[in-house]
Amino acid sequence: MRGRAATAFWNVDGLVKFACAQDGAVLYFDEFAFDEEWQGLPDELVPLVDLVAVDLEDGEDHDDTGRPLSNTVGLAMVETFAGARVTPDDAKEALHQGYVVDL
């Protein structure tokens, strides 16, 4: 299969896992770990991950909406790498279909 795919997942503790693949080959799959050099992560995504690392070093793991920044950055990485855009209607449909649980 040709093309790009990406996914981001976070658990209740806010730990984010991100994975991306191109043309069927996995390039990166790991939690955001702030002591590594992001081996395999496409160069275009490193500035996004660096935002999370800097933010956590400052003791701030949230954006202006109060959501954990690592979650926000994970979604931005998916959009950036895969070229997909998630709209409000997409989010509503995911909730309606049961793909996402609104707690």
Structure characterization notes:
35% of the residues lie in helices and 20% in strands. With 103 residues, it is of the alpha+beta class. It has one domain. It has a 3-stranded antiparallel beta sheet with strand order 1-2-3, covered by helices on one side. β2 and β3 (25-31) form a beta hairpin. The longest helix is centred in the last third of the chain and has 14 residues, at 69-82. The model has no long low-confidence stretch (mean pLDDT 78).
The share of residues in helices is 25-40%
How do the helices and strands follow one another from N- to C-terminus? EEEHHH
Strands ordered across the widest β-sheet = 1-2-3
Using only C-alpha atoms, the radius of gyration works out to: 14 Å
Major sheet attributes: 3 strands, antiparallel
Overall mean pLDDT stands at 78
- Total strand segments: 3
SS summary, helix count: 3
**Broad shape:** globular
Which consecutive residue ranges, at least 5 long each, have pLDDT under 50?
none
Tell me the distance between the termini: 35 Å
Strand-residue fraction? Answer: 15-25%
